[in-house]
Amino acid sequence: MTWFMFVAFSGYYVLLVFLCVGWWRALKLIRRADRLTDTPFISVLIPARNEAAKIEQLLESIAQQEYNPKNFEAIVINDHSVDDTETIVKRWKAANPTVSVVVINLADDRQGKKAAIAQGVHYAQGDIVVTTDADCRVQPGWLASVAHSFDDNTQLVVGAVTLFENGTAFGNVQVVEFASLVGTGAATLGWGMPTMCNGANLAFRKSAFLEVKGYEGSEHIASGDDEFLLRKIAGRYSGGIRFNNQPEGVVEARPAASYKEFFHQRIRWAGKWRAHGVGFSALLALFIFVFHASTILLGIGVIAGVASPLLALMLFGIKIVGEFAFLYPVLKFCKGKFYPASFLVLQFLYPFYVVCFGLAANFFGAEWKGRKI
Questions:
Q1: Rounded distance, CA 298 to CA 314, Å?
Q2: Do both 151 and 60 map to the same domain?
Q3: pLDDT surpasses 60 at 336
Q4: Beta bridge partners of 157
Q5: Average pLDDT over the chain, rounded to an integer
Q6: For residue 72, what is the domain's CATH number?
Q7: Which end of the chain has fewer beta carbons closer than 10 Å to its terminal beta carbon, N or C?
Q8: Residue 273: what pLDDT?
Q9: Full domain range(s) for residue 160
Q10: Is 189:242 a contact under the CB 8 Å cutoff?
Q11: Is the same domain home to 183 and 111?
Q12: Please, which residues have CB within 8 angstroms of residue 273's CB and are 6 or more apart in sequence?
């Protein structure tokens, strides 16, 4: 058992170094001089279902963009909302005529985020399409940072997402945990190996989306509108994916408001990994699962008296230092706070979180906006 744990933890330490260097590479990547003009026309797609209470805040932040309003449009795709989402958007549009906002309804025979984005792409006038969520908030420099991230060879730009800090212990834990996902996606991209991204802040060329036929082949999977598209475009355009390494490009999303919402959200996210097939992303996910299962076994071994407490303390101590070295710069870039208590709590909870959700996604369905998935 001792040798197995030593090998597992050593492999994880190597991974942390790999991620730390990859994050640095992603931030230091210098854009080529042949980038696009500063103000290409951009279409912002906003899939929305039952977002009456939140979407106005997003529209207000879009209206404050430091970007020529003549060079972007916002398209809200109403996914059969049963609240006043459509009415609120139209009312906001009437009160803000200087911002181009279009409201379209998703076709009656279609539903879900992938269908909404696919329909929005066909309505989009811009060559560059940006997706975000209706409950998010963007910074004034967001669209400018997106435009500056494209050059002639760029087909898709991965943007960072952070969570609103709501002042609760549950929210703080989510902020730290979510930073690990954002950092991992950017770090692997820094090494030229795209693995994950977030549809709340994703930009791509309309031509690339159409070339790879959008979400064809993954329509039956509820989530993954972001990562399936990432992989398809990466497979078609080698070297065409980049990370938006400008802090002004970070988007704020809302943390789960309840444990039930968190559970269903993570089940949706975990469910898509089964469809990724064999590759670096799948191997990375498998290693993370095996490693965290090993940390649980190590704790059980210490309690049972078959593993050395000193060895466990040493292995966990190095793990904590390594994860801090990785997560702190990510949180700083995202303008988020580092919560020491939440970070330490996650050291004990995260192994169970990874193992439980990794297994539960194979047996449980999820709910989203009143729909069972």
A1: 12
A2: yes
A3: yes
A4: 203, 242
A5: 91
A6: 3.90.550.10
A7: N
A8: 64
A9: 31-260
A10: yes
A11: yes
A12: 282, 285, 361
